Structure prediction request, 235 residues.
Amino acid sequence: MNQHLLMIEDDARLAHMVCEYLGQSGYTVAHAGDATSGLQALHDKPPHLVILDLMLPDMDGLEVCRRIRALPGALASTPVLMLTAKGDPMDRIIGLEMGADDYLPKPFEPRELLARIRAVLRRRVDGAQPVASNQLHFGSLEIDRDARLVSVAGQPCELTSYQFDLLVALAERAGRVLTRDQIMEAVRGRELDAFDRSIDVHMGRIRAAIEVDAKAPKRILTVRGVGYVFARQQD
Prediction:
C-alpha cells in the first residue's frame, strides 16, 4: 500500500511540482494551502508524514508543528519535515526543538526532499512497538494506558495519576524534544493546581520510579534550556 503524505504549503506551484514528483515515486500526496485546512486534513486522513512550510498565510509553521505534537494518541507522533525560505540556522534549531523530524531550506532539489522523506520514514520504524492499542513497550518498560499501570521488567511502578499522564504524554511523543509548556498542554484535560505546574518535580519522581539510576537517567532525558525528551531506544 502506498504511503500517504500531507503537504501544507501556500505556494501552489511548488506544491504541484512536489506532489507530482512524489506521486511518481510511489507516494500519495494531499495538499493543503494553509494551516487550518492542513490540520483538518491531518484529522480526516492521518498521513505517514507531513511536509510543512514554515511561512503560512494564517499560522506560523512552528505553531502548526507545536499543535501536531500536542494532539492525542498516534497523531502526535506524525513525522514532520519542515520547509523554509529562511536561511537563519536558528530557525532550524527552533523547528527541531518544536518537534520537527527534519528540516530542508528552500530552494531544494526534489531528489533531496525524497531522500529525506525516505530517511525519516525509515527511522520511524524503530521505537515503541505497541503490543495492543492500549500498550507501549520501551525495552523493559511497559505502559498500559487503559489499566493506567506502569512496570519495569514486570515490577509495578508507583506513580500518581498526574505523573502517569505526564509519562504517557512523553512516551507517545518518544524522540521529540518537548518544552515544559508543550508537556503541560499535552495533559491540559486536567485541572491543574499550583503543585502540578512544577513539571521538574514530577519528572524527578517519575525517574525515581522507572529509571535504574534516577541520577543518570536513560529513559527521560533533560535537554538543557528546552525541556525533556523520552528516549525511543531503551533497555
In short: The chain has eight helices and twelve strands.
